[in-house]
Write a structure and sequence with these properties.
By secondary structure, the protein is an alpha+beta fold. It contains eight helices and seven strands. Manganese (II) ion binds next to loops.
Length: 245
């Protein structure tokens, strides 16, 4: 049984990459990982490759410090430290998405907070912190390229589902891979709706109670699987889907 669990996780990371690309959450940049199903001190992430092009053979196993396990010498993502630092800080997190989706970017650089305003985005959480790399690292190229920066970002995320990264993008932490993908897909949707509404005038956001009512959905809820299956087929990788057990 054991190898099948790992094989499924590897296939799921490929699916997750293709979904994020197909739904326009990532382009050449951005990435998604899942915690290793058999070893919580490791995670699975593609080598440095555009998510739309990621295949099974591109997935590399990393330890939480961002070192490849097994001596894979192919170029890794420069920002892989985002993933390990969040897994290290958050035992509840099983999957991490990092993206630069354009619709979200205005909220990383303005004083207007990003809030969940539509029900499908309720699980991004009531409080969405903005992390600024400049606070502790001064002028950089804004990339998270070492564990110190990754851990600082993880502190900025705290116990939340999403953190914005000033002038850069966002990071989403899910209790499962389908949940992380769902957050990733609905982040830009919610941002676009909020931007449009702000042009019209005053905005009503979801209440904390409304957010909690929806966020209590279990990560393995059938509704979660429904979206995962739909997005996977749309992205052309229905053949990689495992039968739901
Ligand atoms: Mn980035």
């Amino acid at each position: 049984m054991t190898p099948n669990v790992l094989e499924k996780a590897l296939r799921d990371v490929v699916i997750a990459n293709r979904i994020l690309a197909h739904e326009g959450v990532v382009d050449a940049y951005g990435h998604v990982s899942v915690r290793h199903p058999l070893d919580p001190t490791r995670y699975l992430l593609s080598r440095s490759r555009a998510p739309e092009l990621v295949e099974r053979g591109d997935i590399v196993e990393f330890d939480l410090e961002g070192k490849s396990v097994g001596g894979d010498t192919r170029a890794p993502y420069l920002e892989r430290f985002i993933h390990g630092a969040i897994y290290e800080a958050r035992p509840d997190v099983q999957a991490v998405v990092h993206a630069h989706a354009e619709a979200v970017l205005p909220f990383t650089i303005s004083a207007t907070p990003l809030r969940p305003v539509v029900h499908m985005a309720s699980f991004i959480g009531a409080r969405i912190p903005v992390w600024d790399i400049r606070d502790n690292f001064g002028d950089t190229n804004l990339l998270v390229v070492n564990m110190a920066q990754g851990r600082d970002l993880a502190r900025g995320l705290g116990g939340e589902r999403v953190a914005l990264m000033r002038g850069h993008g966002f990071v989403a932490a899910g209790r499962s891979l389908p949940e992380a993908i769902r957050i990733g897909v609905y982040m830009p949707v919610n941002a676009r709706v909020l931007l449009d509404a702000l042009r019209l005038g005053e905005v009503t956001a979801l209440s904390r109670g409304e957010i909690e009512a929806h966020a209590s959905m279990k990560p393995d809820d059938p509704a979660m699987w429904r979206a995962w299956e739909y997005w996977a087929v749309r992205a052309g990788c229905g053949d990689l889907l495992s039968a739901r057990t």
